[in-house]
Amino acid sequence: MSTLLAEAGELLSAHGATALSTIATGGSDDANSYRHSFSTRVIHRFISHSWRDPVLLKRMALLWESNAGTAFAFGSAAASVSAAATRAGHLPTLVLDYGGGLVNVIGLSSSVYAFCFLVSLAYGHRLARALGLRGMIVFWDKACIRQDDERLKAAGITHIHEFIVASDRLLILWSEDYFERLWCNFELACFLRARGLSHVNLVPIAATRHQVAILLAIQYMSVAVPVLAASGVPAAISATSLDAVFACSLMPGGLVFGYAHASAIVARLRLQQQAAAFDARAARCFCCDHGHTSPETGATMACDREFVERVVQDRFDGGLAQFSQIVREALPAHVDALLGPALFPMPIWRFAIVYMPFVWLGVDIALCSPDAGVRRSNALEFGFGFGFLLTGVGLNGLLLTAVAARTDLLASATRRRLFLALGSATGAVAFVLGWGKWDAFFNVPSSAPPRRAGETAAVCTAAAALPVLLYAGASVGGRARTAAGPRQPAQPHEATRSIALL
Ligand SMILES: [Zn+2]
């Protein structure tokens, strides 16, 4: 490894990799990006991406990959301090007295979590750097290969497969464009042969946008109902229309949530479709697209395809055809394992992280409500609330995937737009209904007594069991479909086994 980097590093002016901060802050100025790279013996991630994708989305995906754990820890720590300070009376609160003994004390912890999470998601790597830590070291082509010197640039490109095989993991920033790009396929082929598919991470770049949207939607809903309740509007209207007013106040957040969910399902379907039909021979590259003549200078360009085919042939006896077959056979199941069942289009732990503002809202209420029975009841409700929301997500996913399966959703842009509109509507309804089923704010006219803890626990447990069953069913169902589906050949290809053993 050190020899490899020494050789290649010499050619690259001793620059081998870059810390994440380069990508998060630079990227537009090529020479400036290269200045931030440094020589290293360790590359945690080789970033494989299409140059045509929006830089902002790729940055967000990398920030999530690098900083989400820190952001969750920092957000949780700050919210804990906030909850303790609220309990001790040091922070302002909103006291909602519904009568009949039901008093909810709304604190700031929910907003503190959301704010600190987002700030450390965006700047966590800078904090690590200030503390003398380099954090995640990545190979990012634009920053690690000289862009302003043609000789060094060519040297970097011809050595790129050596950096790929020297990296701990390959991180694919997937977009619909990814598998169509020849160089992306080249990077996957080199890494697949060297380290195997189990070391490949794949992140749909739009997913981070969805996750942040859901976080903000939940934060909005955590704030909207208390603010509305405190505004005096509910007192002026009848108890029967109260639910409708609260439901309407939740709708904007629900629509955002539903849209993000539907978008993620569309992206997931596209990913599955592309993985199952993968053929590197159909991939495109800049030189062939432009007839091997530079559109800027008119000079003749060497063909990248010849270089790529030669390197892939060295690694796979059957060349691009054999590599493609291996990907078709192994990648769909790997994607399922990485991203979870398609009904929940993001890994469950990511959903849990973005759901936390709601939990901290419950913690404030549970800690600060004056009555012990109400405290217990609220703690249970908010604790199990995740189950209710997950039920809403899962049922919405079931409906949407059923619609997608029957309409050949990916056939046209119009169908996709209609699907996103449907997803927004059903997501909002699922979310608001899920919220309304358990939320202490709902169905509590001023004269109603507070729910008893035992009653609440029974309802919450039953509701929490449903999403667990749903998730387990979706996981098992997904595997069964993969095993029995027509894409799975009766005999695994010989090369698939060799990849599995690597
Ligand atoms: Zn070419």
UniProtKB/TrEMBL annotation:
Residues 481-502 are annotated as: Disordered. The chain crosses the membrane at residues 62-85, 105-124, 212-232, 244-267, 348-367, 382-405, 417-436, 456-477. Coiled coil: none annotated. Keywords: Membrane, Transmembrane, Transmembrane helix. It comes from the Eukaryota. This is TIR domain-containing protein.
